[in-house]
């Protein structure tokens, strides 16, 4: 068996995992399955593309790719700005829509609103950028063999390293800092957290910022290693939900490991059933988890 | 004049087929509080099963040439079974797991319709689906009016049956579970079983709607069953007023009218090469309207009637 699927699976798993962190955080802290999360991925990727283009125009020359990679420093800077932008987009949407609906208390109405908003945001991207795919760079990348018959491009290695840094950083943030502790407290019990003096509204804002920024990172990874399309986030939505539930709602490491499992499972299965059924793999995994262990690998059992 | 009536009846037939989907969704969401994001999938199952049962043999499964009526029944059974499987797995879990799994099943069904060419006809879909009153096809007015009559009759029967159900003890249990599951269980109602029944029945109505649409157009293809149709149905129900069957029908006609009118407007405003992109604006508009209704008038146009029991109405 060709082991190439391991590299492909890890890369897809990284995209799914980065997105699933935001899904699992909004789910556990705000209490609803957020369908807009896929749109944060696509909006983040397009924002990075537009900003990188703007930087290129600003300095008035083509920015040469750095080292063996297909992208230059402009994309890196644009990526950081785009992450901030996507975080703010998430905040704005919360202020405009979700915070008002939260007052009425019914979580499922939030899911519905997020579903409507995701359709609208995706359609807006389609209108602005058309459904033609876009690319950060048209540089050719040569895949380098790294042993065991596996080949990866320098871009893919860079993206995997970047994901690793973000995931470790997130894990430290959640487990070692005051912000992380207050986030965990709010997800356990918002009223009790508020009584204990935690600024619940502030925690919610930080959750949106972090979730949006990580979704943007996931979009940039997908944009650099595959392509940018309005539907890129929609296509990642089902794998992200599967990863978040597989890992256990509320668990950041769970979301990442869930993402890797989904990515590897997809890449492995594609060898047997054909790439057109890729999306069905995530669904089957999801159903299997719900049947066998609905609380997920690292989740707490519900009372 | 005759063209206008022919067009109007064509429009109304399509709108009423959406109203049927909407009635199914109202049973699930409006009465029982089940959030189904896979409407497109259940409609697709109905359309494909009915097409397979009734078409002459072709490049897809089935092709038994059975009467249209048999196709309709098959559509309801097929969508109902799919809903029973999904429901049995997810209805016992957290409420939004149903949203996620129905979202997933709709994607998988669409994938299957698109790629399993020997079963579903693949991207080419299924053509030559028998149309009711095909003998009248020479005369567009008569054909459209006859079909309108048929679809209106189906919608009316479904509407009356659902109204009857909503007012029955069974309907009261559904609303009791939606409002306070613990209380409903305390008086001995098996919440999961009632939810599953409502989910299966609602999905069966969606399957019927898919079949009705398929036979009216005479052709189905995978791209008819993307998440846009789910989204439209939700917008129809929310704008019309969830929990109210009249609202479901009226919302469907209203949103479909807005959709058709804005579509016609787009074709005149935008040049042909920009029309695919402009069509995206329609979705944006519907999404914004839906969000606005959720925020400003969550009851929709009609809203849910406060009392539905005729016994209470007599006294009140």
One letter per element, helices H and strands E, the order of chain B comes to: HHHHHHHHHHHHH
Overall shape of chain A: globular
CATH topology of chain A: ABC transporter involved in vitamin B12 uptake, BtuC
The biggest sheet of chain B amounts to: none
| Number of helical elements of chain A | 11
Which helices and strands appear, and what pairs or packs with what?
The complex is a heterodimer of chains A (303) and B (316).
Chain A: H1 4-30, H2 37-59, H3 73-102, H4 107-129, E1 144-145, E2 151-152, H5 154-176, H6 178-188, H7 190-195, H8 200-225, H9 232-247, H10 252-273, H11 278-292
Antiparallel strand pairs in A: 1-2
Helix pairs in contact in A: 1-5, 1-6, 1-8, 1-9, 1-10, 2-3, 2-4, 2-8, 2-9, 3-4, 3-8, 5-6, 5-8, 6-8, 9-10, 9-11, 10-11
Chain B: H1 2-31, H2 39-54, H3 68-90, H4 95-115, H5 117-120, H6 140-167, H7 169-179, H8 181-186, H9 191-217, H10 227-240, H11 245-269, H12 275-296, H13 310-315
Can you offer a commentary on this structure?
The complex is a heterodimer of chains A (303) and B (316). With 303 residues, chain A is mainly α. Chain A has one domain: ABC transporter involved in vitamin B12 uptake, BtuC (Orthogonal Bundle), CATH 1.10.3470. Chain A contains 11 helices and 2 strands. Chain A has helices at 4-30, 37-59, 73-102, 107-129, 154-176, 178-188, 190-195, 200-225, 232-247, 252-273, 278-292; strands at residues 144-145, 151-152. Chain A has a two-stranded antiparallel sheet. The radius of gyration of chain A is 19 Å and the shape is globular. Chain A starts with a helix and ends in an 11-residue tail after the last helix. With 316 residues, chain B is mainly α. Chain B has one domain (2-225). In chain B, 74% of the residues lie in helices and 0% in strands. Chain B has 13 helices and no strands. Chain B has helices spanning 2-31, 39-54, 68-90, 95-115, 117-120, 140-167, 169-179, 181-186, 191-217, 227-240, 245-269, 275-296, 310-315. In chain B, α2 (39-54) crosses α9 (191-217), α3 packs antiparallel against α9 (191-217) and α10 crosses α11. Chain B is globular and about 60 Å long. The chains are: A mainly alpha (303), B mainly alpha (316). The interface between A and B is large, with 45 and 44 residues.
């Amino acid at each position: 068996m060709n082991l190439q699927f391991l590299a492909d699976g890890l890369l897809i798993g990284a995209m799914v995992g980065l997105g699933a962190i935001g899904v699992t955080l909004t789910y556990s802290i705000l209490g609803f399955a957020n369908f807009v999360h896929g749109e944060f991925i696509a909006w983040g990727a397009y924002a990075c593309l537009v900003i990188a283009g703007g930087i290129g125009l600003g300095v008035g020359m083509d920015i040469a790719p750095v080292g063996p990679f297909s992208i230059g420093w402009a994309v890196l800077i644009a990526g950081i700005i785009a992450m901030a932008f996507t975080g703010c987009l998430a905040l704005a949407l919360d202020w405009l829509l979700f915070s008002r609906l939260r007052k009425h208390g019914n979580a499922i109405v939030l899911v519905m609103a997020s579903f409507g908003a995701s359709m609208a945001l995706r359609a807006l991207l389609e209108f602005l950028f058309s459904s033609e795919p876009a690319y950060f760079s048209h540089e050719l990348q040569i895949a380098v063999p790294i042993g065991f018959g596996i080949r990866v491009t320098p871009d893919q290695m860079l993206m995997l390293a970047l994901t690793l840094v973000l995931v470790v950083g997130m894990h430290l943030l959640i487990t070692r800092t005051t912000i992380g502790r207050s986030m965990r407290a709010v997800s356990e019990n918002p009223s009790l957290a508020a009584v204990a003096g935690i600024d619940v509204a502030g925690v919610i804002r930080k959750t949106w910022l972090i979730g949006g920024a990580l979704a943007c990172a996931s979009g940039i990874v997908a944009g650099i290693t595959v392509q940018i399309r309005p539907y890129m986030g929609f296509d990642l939505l089902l794998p992200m939900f599967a990863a978040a539930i597989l890992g256990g709602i509320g668990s950041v490491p769970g979301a990442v490991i869930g993402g890797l499992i989904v990515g590897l499972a997809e890449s492995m299965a594609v060898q047997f059933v054909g790439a057109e059924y890729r999306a069905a793999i995530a669904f089957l995994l999801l159903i299997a988890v719900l049947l066998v262990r609905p609380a997920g690998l690292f989740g707490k059992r519900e009372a | 004049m005759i063209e206008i009536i022919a067009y109007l009846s064509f429009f109304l037939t399509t709108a009423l087929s959406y109203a049927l989907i909407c009635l199914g969704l109202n049973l699930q969401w409006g009465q029982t509080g089940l959030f189904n994001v896979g409407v497109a999938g259940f409609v697709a199952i109905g359309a494909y099963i009915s097409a397979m049962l009734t078409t002459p043999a072709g490049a897809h499964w089935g092709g038994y040439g059975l009467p249209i009526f048999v196709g309709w029944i098959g559509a309801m059974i097929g969508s109902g079974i799919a809903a029973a499987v999904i429901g049995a797995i997810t209805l016992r879990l957290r409420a939004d797991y149903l949203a996620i799994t129905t979202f997933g099943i709709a994607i998988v069904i669409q994938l299957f319709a698109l790629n399993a060419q020997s079963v579903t006809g693949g991207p080419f879909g299924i053509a030559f689906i028998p149309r009711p009153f095909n003998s009248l096809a020479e005369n567009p007015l008569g054909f459209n009016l006859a079909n309108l009559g048929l679809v209106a009759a189906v919608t009316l029967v479904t509407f009356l049956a659902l109204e009857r159900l909503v007012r029955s003890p069974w309907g009261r249990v559904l609303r009791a579970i939606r409002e306070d599951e613990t209380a409903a269980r305390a008086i001995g109602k098996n919440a999961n079983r009632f939810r599953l029944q409502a989910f299966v029945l609602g999905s069966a109505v969606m399957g019927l709607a898919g079949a009705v649409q398929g036979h009216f157009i005479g052709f189905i293809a995978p791209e008819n069953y993307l998440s846009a149709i789910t989204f439209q149905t939700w917008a129809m129900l929310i704008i019309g007023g969830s929990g109210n069957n009249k609202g479901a029908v009226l919302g469907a006609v209203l949103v479909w009218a807005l959709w058709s009118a804005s579509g016609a407007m787009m074709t005149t405003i935008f040049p042909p090469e920009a029309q695919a992109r402009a069509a995206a604006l329609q979705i944006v508009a519907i999404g914004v309207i839906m969000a606005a209704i959720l925020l400003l008038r969550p009851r929709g146009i009609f809203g849910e009637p406060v009392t539905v029991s005729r016994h209470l109405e007599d006294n009140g």
